[in-house]
Amino acid sequence: MKKGKRYLEAAKLVEKGKLYDLSEACELIKKTASAKFDETIEAHLKLGVDGRHADQQVRGAVVLPHGTGKNVKVLVFAKGDKVDQALAAGADYAGGDELVPKIQNEGWLDFDVVIATPDMMATVGRLGRVLGPKGLMPNPKAGTVTMDIEKAIADVKAGKIEYRLDKANIIHVPVGKASFEAEKIADNYKALMDAIVKAKPSSAKGTYLKSVTISSTMGPGIRLNPNRFLEG
Length: 232
What we know:
The chain is an alpha/beta fold. The chain has helices at 5-11, 22-32, 81-88, 99-104, 121-125, 128-131, 149-158, 182-198; strands spanning 40-47, 59-63, 74-77, 93-95, 113-116, 160-164, 170-177, 209-216, 222-224. The strands form three sheets. A four-stranded antiparallel sheet has the order 7-1-8-9, covered by helices on one side.
């Protein structure tokens, strides 16, 4: 795929083959993010596990100290008083069975996170084919299947992100915006890496962090030294 002029200019700033320290990488990524919009800064982590095996899955959630810079829209599946509680706690949308046809038949997906009370999971399960591929299915490990919906909503709005392996055993997650100060991007990245390191499956053998990269939406990848995150 042909790269644009802006990308090629940004790529010249990144030294090929170099493994950057986190602070240096966060300063550099602000220089490579030269688009006219506020680019998202993403982390890409290649792990030495095999996600096809249940005991090597790496999945969970972490609250980034400075948030993602994005206004997150939350949908809550609940019943009775819990619907009112969800809306009062800041949910953008809340409801029950009546939302299923809207999502399933009308293709409504104007939300970023789905939270559900346990008694609504049978209903939400009917939407698995729609929500699953988009990474929107509520999950107890991520804290999005819970009776404490007020806390779940507060965490998401404060900058809680979910992480999970894709088919290539890579985790892709946002850690901020190009407009963030470099120190805030670094703080968010450290919080993510702490969570990933703690989530290492006991059955994982060999090198756990194979490669660690950050990039902006339109910019080149900047590789970091993965060993620094394992030194504690």
